[in-house]
Each structure stands twice: as C-alpha cells, then as structure tokens.
Design a protein that fits this description.
heterodimer; A: about 200 residues; alpha+beta; B: alpha+beta; 2 domains; three-stranded antiparallel β-sheet; 10 strands; about 15% strand
C-alpha cells in the first residue's frame, strides 16, 4: 500500500475537521457581503417621484402609472425585479441624495406568478393642474425643488403656492371661489400651458 | 484509409461567437479542420446603437460572461477616444484592478477545466476553490461576482472603500500558497510533460501569420500585449512583466496563463498600494461627432471596439472584435497532425471556453456511432491514464 505523504495527511485531517468548502445553502441562509448589489428598493419617504431612475434605467425595469381619477391622484412607481440587472444606475441617478431608491442586499427574488409578484410598487401623491387636470409633478417633487432653489421659488407661483399649501396658510375657500379662467387663476397651482394662458390671453 | 469527418458544434455557448468545427480524420489523426462561425447573431452591436452611451456599457458587459470587464473597458476607451479625454487617475487604477481580477478568475477557470479534461480532477476542484476567493473579492469591491457594472465613459461608477482593502489583500494573498503548490504539482508532473509537451505547436511565424493574440501568441514567443505595447489604465505606472515562452505547445500555454496569474496579483497589489485619491468620474455630458477606437488586453487577447458618434447621445455605429475571432484560425496550424484525444485539449488551449466539448458530436462514416462531449473527455482522460501506466506512476 502506498503511504500518504505528510502534506496529504494534514490536508485530509484538516478536511475532516473543517468540513466541505461549499456552504450548506439552502439549510443555512447565504449572507452576501455588504457591498453586494441586490434588489433596488424604494424608500417611500425619501423618493420624490421625479422619474429620473426610469429615464436612466438601461433595461426599462422601472415604470410608472399616473392615476388621475378619484379624489387622490397618485403616481404608482413600479420596479420589475425580473427585468432588473442590478446595475445601480437608478441609485446613482436618484435626485433625493441617492436615498429614494437604493440597492439592498436581497438576492432571493424568485416568485411563482410573474404577473402578480414580479414587481414592487410605491405610491406618491400627484399634483394636478387646478384648471385642466394635467399632471404637473409629484407633490414631494415640487417641495423638493422649493427647498433646493430657496428664494428663487417665489418666481414660480406653482412652486410658491405648493409650499404655502404644505404650510397650510392658504385659505382654500378663497382660492376655490376664483373660477373665471383669467387673471385670478394665477393664484392656483397650474401646469405650464395654463399658466401661459392665464398670463397672456386677453380673456 | 477512409477519411471521416467529425463535426464539433455548431453552437459554442460560452464564447462570443458560436462556431462549428469539422475535423477530417484519417484513422486517429486529424488531417484537416474547417471552422465556421457566426451561428448565433444576438444583435448586440445594433442593440448598443439603440441605447445611450452610458446605458450601452451594460449591454456590452453582457457580450461575454467571463469578459465582463474587457468589453466595457475597450468600449469606454473607444468613447473617450472620440472626445478625446483622459479619465481621472483613481478611475484608471480602479479599472486596472477590476480588469486584473477578471484575468485571474478567467485564467483559473481555464486552468481548472484543463485539469478536468486531462483527468486531473483534483486540480479542477482546487483551482475552482481558489477562483471562488477571487470572485468574492470581485463581490466585495464591485458588488457582484460577474457583470461588475462599474465601467462608464469618463470614469467608473462606484468608488472602492478603503475599509475593504485589508480583507481583499488577505483573500488575494491567501490563494498564493495553494497556487504555488498547484503550479509545482502541475508544471513538474512528468505525466503532464508527456501529455502536453510538443502537441498543438504554434510556431512563432505561424502566430504572426495568423495574427494570434493574447496568451496564444505569447506562448509562441510573440511578445504582443496591449498593456505593454500601448499602455493604458495604470499599466504604465506599475512594474510588471510580460510572460513570453518560446515553444508554442499546449504546455507553454498553460505556463503562460499560470504565470500571468502571478503577474495579475502583483499588479492588483501595486494598484491597491498606490491607489490615488480624487475624482472617479468626469461626468461626460455630450459626445461630439467623431470616431473612436479602444483596445483592452482581455484574458484571451486583445479586445477591440470601434464607436462612431454623430453628435446624438447614442452611438451611430459600434463594432466589436473579440480576441477569439483572431485565435480561432490558429487551429489550422495546431490541430492538423494530432490525434482526436489531443484535439480536445488543443481546441481548448486558445481559450478558456470548454462548452464546445459538451456540444461535440462524433460520427463514423456510416453515421451510426455518436460520441457526446463526455466520450471525448473520456478519450482524453484515458490517454493520460495510459501514459501514467506506461511511466509506472500509480
């Protein structure tokens, strides 16, 4: 019989004690390194609904749907986990200090029903034009702009009034009573087209 | 004696281009080989023209699972060549580190599979265990084992965290003792000498004539390496050696790849040591009209990209030339005159893609007998066993 070399013997004993190199998954959960790029997750508090992530996504894994009917218009943001390539471009492009959508460490993303489970959603409140009902932006997005540009916000009534509404200093009774599609409408939150009409038309 | 034709292919799943080999054999000996490519048109170049310059890098990354640094590296260099612009120093070093990590894991993958095909399954298991450590390093530094998503025109997307470096260096240093032992075991093994030396010889003249690239040409004594010939990244600021051997046989190709792993480790450690601070990205907004070329020394040879811009935010034309495209024709010089059991390793010697073997089908003249990839592996492993028996090695 061929005797094992000392090195081989050491290796064999070491293997007996430490066990196999492979992990015991799925009996033991796999914990990735903290820098692992897993599923991107929205933070509903930080996200402002600006759609920058949707624009930069190379695989169109991010989408949105604007619900304008009903009392509470809202924007639903979708993230499709089956299309996502976990590149992190959305996180790098996020205007809310890269906090609105962040890559998590989640990697177990399998699901049974592609139509119902392959995506995650968050809802953001939408600001509609008070004359024509056109989508302007998410309310958080307007607030975010006001905070960023400071006193320059006074040059845009839409931004200025959205801030005032948030502070609760606008008397809704007075504003809603103004209904003549004319100069008085300039005190409302308007889309760009209606703003131009109220300012320039001779009505 | 009747000649038969052995078809291999036509789909080669791991490589950039699927290929079809038809080996004409006279008994055991290969007398002719015909290679056809272009079976799997994925439309990557066209797809890249539909994405913006920034988004294209993710498509390019997926040309090849193993070369997921090489292609974006060459692509970003091509886009930067249009402007032209020089990326920040820190980005250069980060790119170099990722590229060399990829070279290590690609060469180790090839090395392990070569061991498997020759009947050295211990080598296969040990080397792939080492490769896991390198993939872990990739995950720590870039966030994923493959498809690093770190390259962008003008710099890199993500910065390295200095806190990770001790663990990274520990892991990289940790593979060296095992690698030393494997190198010694493999390169001093008399059976492997008998099995690999003198087969599949690509002479220096042939390597130049066929425009062989990467380790294939360097094993034949042609000192051809983009990193030395036209330095980019941090390669000109770091001291490293180009590995060149003279014989051009399969054994020398193994030697070149194994020694290149050591060079890559040297480069990575030097890069981490010298990593400069500062910006990692130029934030390029507009790409002017023009043309640009970019080359990168991938693990298998020079990857070459050509990008033309018409001033919009998308490439007007994007052309990719993978190294395997240049290395494939060398089969004409290497396989002819060898036996089928050697053809398995020779066909694999230019490139770390072995899936071809899984797709092999062997037919005799009457078309009744058919060998799958496993039969060919068995043929190859049996030859090693035969050599062992003849040499009296248990």
């Amino acid at each position: 019989m061929k005797l094992p070399k000392a090195r081989e013997l050491v290796e064999a004993i070491k293997a007996l004690i430490t066990g196999p190199y492979t992990s015991k998954f799925p009996y033991k959960p796999h914990v990735p390194y903290s820098s692992f790029r897993g599923q991107p997750k929205y933070d509903p508090d930080k996200c402002v609904g600006c759609l920058a992530c949707e624009q930069v996504c190379p695989v169109e894994a991010i989408g949105h749907q604007d619900v304008t009917e009903g009392d509470e218009p809202k924007r639903i943001m979708f993230h499709y986990t089956d299309t996502c390539i976990f590149c992190g471009t959305c996180e790098l492009a996020c205007i809310a200090d890269n906090q609105g959508i962040k890559l998590s460490n989640d990697w177990e993303l399998s699901f049974f029903d592609r139509k119902a489970e392959s995506f995650e959603t968050i809802e953001k409140e939408l600001q509609l034009c008070e004359m024509c009902g056109e989508v302007i932006a998410c309310k958080d997005h307007l607030r975010w702009i006001v905070e960023r540009i400071g006193e320059l916000a006074f040059s845009s009534p839409t931004l200025y009034y959205s801030k005032l509404r948030e502070l609760g200093v606008v008397d809704e009774n007075i504003v809603s009573a103004l209904r003549d599609s004319g100069r008085s409408d300039r005190f409302k939150i308007l889309c760009a087209r209606c703003r131009r009409e109220t300012t320039l038309t001779t009505k | 004696m009747a000649r038969s034709v052995i078809p291999i292919g036509p789909w080669h799943p791991l490589q950039e281009e699927p290929e079809f080999f038809s080996l004409t054999v006279d008994g055991e000996t290969v007398v002719d080989i015909d290679v056809s490519i272009g079976y799997n048109h994925r439309g990557i170049e066209k797809l890249s023209e539909r994405k913006s310059f920034d988004q294209s890098s993710f498509v390019i990354e997926r040309i090849c699972g193993i070369c997921s640094t090489s292609h974006p590296f060459a692509y970003t260099r091509a886009v930067e060549d249009i402007i032209p612009v020089e990326v920040p120093d820190r980005a250069k070093y980060i790119r170099t580190i990722v590229a060399e990590l990829e070279r290590i894991h690609s060469h180790l993958l090839w090395f392990g599979l070569a061991g498997h095909f020759l009947g050295y399954n211990t080598v296969y298991h040990w080397v792939w265990k080492l490769r896991e450590e390198i993939l872990d390093v990739c995950e720590i530094l870039t966030g994923n084992r493959n498809n690093y998503a770190i390259f962008k025109p003008g710099g890199v997307r993500r910065d390295f965290k200095p806190d990770d470096f001790p663990l990274v260096l520990k892991k990289i240093d940790g593979i060296i003792p095992t690698l030393n032992r494997l190198k010694k075991a493999v390169l001093d093994d008399p059976v492997l000498h008998a099995r690999l030396k003198g087969i599949g010889i690509l002479t220096k003249e042939e390597a130049i004539d066929y425009c062989a690239l990467g380790p294939t040409s360097r094993a034949s004594g042609v000192a051809r390496d983009v990193r030395k010939d036209a330095p980019y990244g941090a390669y000109d600021r770091i001291d490293w050696d180009m590995i060149v051997t003279e014989n051009g046989d399969v054994f020398d190709k193994v030697v070149v790849r194994v020694l290149e792993v050591y060079e890559s480790i040297k480069i990575i450690k030097a890069c981490i040591r010298d990593l400069p601070g500062g910006e990692i990205d130029l934030n390029i907004k507009d790409i002017p009209p023009g043309e640009g070329i970019g080359a990168h020394e991938a693990p298998r040879g020079e990857t070459f990209h050509y990008v033309r811009s018409d001033g919009t935010n998308r490439p007007a034309r994007h052309k990719v030339r993978a190294p395997t495209f240049m290395n494939l024709p060398t089969y004409k010089a290497t396989v002819i005159g060898e036996t089928i059991s050697d053809a398995t390793i020779i066909l694999a010697a230019i490139d770390p893609c072995y899936c071809c073997t899984e797709r092999m089908a062997v037919r005799d003249v009457k078309g009744k007998k058919m060998y799958g990839g496993q039969d060919l592996v068995r043929l190859s492993q049996e030859k090693t066993a035969k050599i062992k028996r003849e040499m009296g090695i248990p």
